[in-house]
Every structure is written in structure tokens, then in C-alpha cells.
From TrEMBL:
Source organism phylogeny: Eukaryota, Viridiplantae, Streptophyta, Embryophyta, Tracheophyta
Alphabetized UniProt keyword annotations: Membrane, Transmembrane, Transmembrane helix
Protein name in the entry: O-fucosyltransferase family protein
Domain of life: Eukaryota
Listed transmembrane segments: 21-42
């Protein structure tokens, strides 16, 4: 869609040349905006004064929805602090992004997306894709962030809710125009209710609403919405709208898998224990370690997955051969089986997980780690939600269980 394509500058170049005075004036104003917002919004890449232009009309005529007003929530999702070390995992950031997109739909505005998604290093180990024989050599992807458009297909998102990136030329134009418009250009609206933002003309007529959300969790903005029928975007909206090359990779792998089932086995960081004052290990998910071990999985999924089926396993477990006992009944497949397809497109764990998620969504029977919906099949009965109750892990299997 055009609003995203403007980033490539095609529309901008077509514009008629303006008088040099206007260009200098525009450049000056933009310079001020530039330094005022020095806080890393702008990658100076592709930023050239010769292409600055404030005629939003031409780009908006390309926007099917005709949404010429903008909503800005900040330049990082769920990342307090300056760097990416403290940011939330993909799942949280994605929920938060969905919340922001819903807000843009509600307000009928174009959403200004952060151009980057932070990656917390603890979520960026390579072990999953390249099963090395030495589990202690934890190779990581170097990136501490990835480009938003390497994860999602922004053209496709824009068909539902128009978005632009905060490093695009159009965003620069919006900022410089908002400066010129003065009080009608930009409003900082922290704490103003969404209904007021939509209906009061003092907000609804403003070009750019700066609703900078909590850096800790954008999703806080949605959490207190008690009207569930107001939820506009489904949970699968963003997973399904993965970037084209990730969707292509998933399609290729799905074709090779043929008729398959899938399990998502979350271990890793969620197994963490801490010692109580008597030195005894405690955990927030008392059965999870047991329930995600192959012996228990075999027993648990027997009623859902018949023998000889192809079972695709997505997991953050690093121990080589950890799931091998499942091979006694199933034909096992991991993303590491398809590294020739994945290596050329996957540069971070987030991208890998997005591909794995598409594969899991295509399974005939899919078993999650935790039950999230009433109809879900799950490996454990422990609740996903953090209960805040530290309990002693259980390893014994009850008689009659599973
Ligand atoms: C939006 O508001 C935040 C917080 O008030 C501020 O730091 C930021 O500079 C503003 N951004 C724009 C584009 O005005
Ligand atoms: C809940 O949201 C729906 C859809 O936005 C709306 O039609 C309905 O009136 C709302 N109900 C309440 C009680 O606010
Ligand atoms: C995947 O690789 C494992 C070895 O790592 C092998 O045992 C298994 O048969 C492979 N699965 C497929 C579907 O090729």
C-alpha cells in the first residue's frame, strides 16, 4: 500500500520543485524537529533534505482509507530503558502492538509503527535452529533488534489498519507539517480517554496524537478495557501477517512435512526455580518441568496423536536429543531439519519463532504448552498466568494421570 511505499521515496520524487525559500524554511523546521526528537527516532539513512516535502495530500490520495491523521505511541514497544536488554519477549511485544493497532482503528488514524523491534538477548540463542552437539556453547544471533518489516508484512497490515514506520519519509513530513500547524498539528494526550480522543473535536481534528504509552507495557492501555466485544483484532492477526519471506519459508516446510501434528514445548527461562529460606527449590509452574519431558509428553499426547504420525516439535529446550524418546512412536521433525530453507531468511529468534508458529498453525492437531483457550490441547494443566505462588516442583506421576 502506498503509505508504506512512500518510504522508498517514489511519491516524493514526483512532486514539483518548490521555491528554494520554502525548501530552506522546511529544512530549518525539520532540523529543529530533528534535534528536538534526537532520541533515536530517526535513522539518518535515506534522509535527505532534497526530498523533504510537506504536501501530504499527494501521499494520502494513495491511501485507500483516506486516513490522513496519525497516532504515535513511542519508538519502542515494551522496552523501558535506552537499550534492548530489558525489553519483553516477542509474545508480549506483539500483544502490545496489537493493542496499539486496535487503538488506531478505533480512532481511525494511521498508526506510526516503531521501525524496530527490540530483542532481549536471552531470547536470541541460536541453539534451536542449529542443534550443536555441545549444549554449553550458546551461540547467539548478534542483533539486539530487528527491523519491523523483517517480521511483519506492513502492506498487508495496512489493508486492515494503515501504518507507517517511524523512520519513513512520510513520518518526517508529518512531523514537519505538525510543527507548521501549531496547536492543530500535534497534541500530547497522555491520560485522555479513548472516547474523548475519538469524539472531541479538540483531539479528533489534530493531525498527530502523541499518546506515548507506558514503556513498560503498551498493553496496559488495553488491559482495563472491560468491554470484550470492543476487541477488533484477533490473536492470530499479527502471527498470520508475517513478512512474505517468512510465510514463504513456512509454506515450503509445511509442504515437506505433509500431513503432520505439532507440539510447542516451552522450557528454558520459564522453568526457573529459586530457593526458599530452607534451601528448597521452588517454581511458579510446579508441574511444567515434568510435563514437558519426553516420557510424560508421550503419555499425555497418546490420546490425541496416533502412532507413526509426523510430529513437528518447536521448543526452546537446548539439550541435544532431549526429545529423542518421542521417536519411539512418532516421526520427529524440528526446524533444524529445514535449515537449508531457514538459514537464508532467518536472522533472529523472533523470525524463527514466527516461521515455527505458522508451521504449528498448519498442523492437523496442535498441542500447546499451556491451555490458553477452552478448546486448546495442552501439555500441562498448570496455568499460564503467573500465579505469584512459588511451589515445590512435582516430578512424580500420579497414578491414573494422563
Ligand atoms: C511525545 O510525547 C513524549 C512524552 O510526553 C515526548 O517525550 C515525545 O518527544 C513526544 N513526541 C513527539 C513526536 O512529539
Ligand atoms: C461494547 O463495544 C461494542 C463494540 O464497540 C459496542 O457496540 C457496545 O455498545 C459496547 N458496550 C458497552 C456496554 O460499552
Ligand atoms: C530430523 O532430524 C533428525 C536428526 O536431527 C532425524 O532423526 C529426523 O528423522 C529428521 N526428520 C525429518 C522429518 O527429516
Amino acid at each position: 500500500m502506498a503509505i508504506y511505499k512512500t518510504q522508498k521515496g517514489k511519491l516524493l520524487q514526483r512532486s514539483p520543485p518548490r521555491s528554494s525559500i520554502v525548501i530552506i524554511l522546511t529544512a530549518t523546521i525539520t532540523c529543529i524537529a530533528f534535534f528536538y526528537l534526537a532520541s533515536s527516532f530517526f535513522s539518518s539513512k535515506g534522509f535527505s533534505f532534497s526530498t523533504i516535502k510537506t504536501n501530504l495530500q499527494s501521499s494520502n490520495s494513495k491511501n485507500h482509507r483516506g486516513s490522513e491523521k496519525y497516532l504515535y505511541w513511542g519508538n519502542k514497544i515494551d522496552c523501558p530503558g535506552k537499550h534492548c536488554e530489558s525489553c519483553a519477549g516477542l509474545g508480549h511485544q506483539e500483544s502490545s502492538l496489537r493493542c496499539a493497532l486496535e487503538e488506531a482503528i478505533f480512532l481511525q488514524r494511521t498508526f506510526v509503527m516503531p521501525s524496530r523491534m527490540c530483542i532481549n538477548p536471552i531470547h536470541n540463542q541460536k541453539g534451536i535452529l542449529h542443534q550443536s552437539s555441545d549444549a554449553s556453547s550458546e551461540e547467539r544471533w548478534a542483533a539486539s533488534f530487528c527491523a519491523m518489516d523483517s517480521l511483519y508484512d506492513l502492506d498487508l497490515i495496512s489493508e486492515t489498519v494503515p501504518v507507517i514506520l517511524d523512520n519513513s519519509k512520510q513520518w518526517h513530513q508529518v512531523l514537519s507539517t505538525s510543527m507548521k500547524l501549531g496547536s492543530r498539528g500535534i497534541a500530547n494526550v497522555q491520560g485522555v480517554s479513548r472516547d474523548d480522543l475519538r469524539s472531541k473535536s479538540s483531539y479528533s481534528n489534530i493531525l498527530l496524537l502523541n499518546r506515548t504509552a507506558s514503556p513498560l507495557s503498551w498493553f496496559m492501555e488495553c488491559r482495563d478495557r472491560n468491554n470484550h466485544s470492543a476487541i477488533i483484532l484477533s490473536y492470530s492477526f499479527l502471527p498470520l501477517i508475517a513478512a512474505q519471506k517468512l510465510r514463504n519459508a513456512a509454506e515450503k516446510i509445511k509442504a515437506l512435512l505433509g500431513d503432520y501434528d505439532a507440539i510447542h514445548v516451552r522450557r528454558g527461562d520459564i522453568l526457573k526455580t529459586r530457593k526458599d529460606r530452607f534451601g528448597i527449590d521452588r517454581t511458579l509452574h510446579p508441574h511444567l518441568d515434568r510435563d514437558t519431558r519426553p516420557e510424560f509428553i508421550l503419555c499425555r499426547i497418546a490420546k490425541w496423536v496416533p502412532p507413526e504420525r509426523t510430529l513437528f516439535i518447536a521448543s526452546n529446550e537446548r539439550t541435544p536429543g532431549f526429545f529423542a524418546p518421542l521417536a519411539s512412536r512418532y516421526k520427529l521433525a524440528y526446524s533444524s531439519n529445514y535449515s537449508s530453507i531457514l538459514d537464508p531468511v532467518v536472522e533472529s529468534n523472533y523470525q524463527l519463532f514466527m516461521v515455527e508458529r505458522l508451521i504449528m498453525m498448519g498442523a492437523k492437531t496442535f498441542i500447546r504448552t499451556y491451555k490458553e483457550d477452552d478448546n486448546d490441547l495442552s501439555l500441562t494443566d498448570d496455568p499460564k498466568k503467573n500465579t505469584k505462588e512459588w511451589q515445590i516442583p512435582v516430578y512424580k506421576m500420579d497414578t491414573g494421570e494422563c
